[in-house]
Specification:
GGDEF domain-containing protein, 8-stranded mixed barrel, binds magnesium ion, alpha/beta, 9 strands, 284 residues, binds ligand C2E
């Protein structure tokens, strides 16, 4: 009986593994189709200047509406795109869409607005990202200094010199570079000296418990003062309450992003939000 159970269990595990592998292949195929048919879309989350409360920029966040399964979060499909070689195509289309959208908002009377786009480490491996950024700037005609590229610390670990070379060329184009999810990776500060970043985004895990957790509060305070003394802008991610926003203002944090201000918004909703900020009587 034990043997039979054993074999049954083995077969069951095997069937489960096959099912998982098949499931993964189905997701990959559907993602490839979504990229080829250009059905991925972007949402835009406002980036807020804390002292004034004004929107100064927006982060483009990729969205995938699967025809049968509904919305699949980027936390799930970005790693899949990275593993199966789709991230370059995905990254290229995100850059183009975001740049064209920014151009439209500039033309609609918001010429100062910044656009932030996430790049993953894999997009640096063959250096294709440089050409993609140049193309996005060329087709949109936006000024390079209105575009900000968000990298995580993992990008900087991958292949020291090759990645540094690409980053320097991106800087030479005039685009801005920011470090996303700061504090969650290997926080070697060496790269802060090697490349002139423009902004540090403090990871939401530190920001969320700012009020109740003295250790997180100390980390946030420390990162803000590090950024300011290096001459970098600093943004707190994941601000969900007015209490946290208030504390961040008190700590001299310049920028914030989070559900307290806005969720990621569809472009037409973001446009309304921008419009509502115009001083009344503005006619230009
Ligand atoms: P991220 O770049 O750190 O983006 C911020 C994430 O935090 C977004 O999740 C956003 O919706 C969420 N968020 C913003 N405010 C709050 C808040 O107050 N509370 C909470 N709990 N969450 C908040 P999302 O859209 O699910 O994206 C997750 C991650 O997927 C992003 O993290 C980024 O690493 C990646 N990602 C998204 N779009 C792209 C893309 O186009 N390319 C690449 N390479 N990665 C992307
Ligand atoms: Mg980001
Ligand atoms: Mg982040
Ligand atoms: Mg993140």
């Amino acid at each position: 009986a034990a043997k039979r159970n054993g074999r049954g269990t083995y077969q069951f595990a095997n069937a489960t593994m096959n099912e998982a592998a098949l499931e993964r292949l189905r997701i990959e195929a559907a993602l490839r189709t979504a990229i080829e048919s250009d059905t991925l879309r972007l949402e835009y989350q406002p980036l807020i200047h804390l002292p004034s409360g004004r929107i100064v920029g927006t982060e483009a966040l990729c969205r995938w509406d699967h025809p049968e399964r509904g919305s699949i979060p980027p936390g799930l499909f970005i790693p899949i795109a990275e593993d199966c070689g789709l991230i370059e195509a995905l990254g290229g289309l995100v850059l183009r869409k975001a740049a064209l959208q920014l151009r439209a908002w500039h033309d609609a009377g918001h010429p100062e607005l910044m656009m932030s786009v996430n790049l993953s480490a894999r997009q640096f491996q063959r250096g294709v990202v440089l050409k993609q950024v140049e193309d996005a700037l060329a087709i949109s005609g936006i000024s390079p200094d209105r575009l900000e590229l968000e990298l995580t610390e993992s990008v900087l670990l991958h292949d020291g010199e090759a990645v540094m070379a690409v980053l320097r060329r991106l800087k030479a184009l005039g685009v801005k570079l920011s470090i996303d999810d700061f504090g969650t990776g290997y926080s070697s500060f060496a790269y802060l000296r090697r490349i002139k970043f423009d902004k540090i985004k403090i990871d939401q895990s530190f920001v969320r418990d700012l009020i109740d957790d003295p250790d997180n509060a100390a980390i946030v305070r420390g990162v803000i003062s590090l950024a300011l003394s290096l001459g970098l802008a600093v943004l707190a991610e994941g601000v969900e309450t007015e209490e946290v926003a208030q504390r961040l203002r008190h700590l001299q944090c310049t920028y914030a992003q989070g559900y307290h201000f806005d969720r990621p918004l569809r472009p037409e909703v973001f446009a309304q939000r921008l419009q509502s900020l115009r001083p009344s009587g503005f006619t230009g």
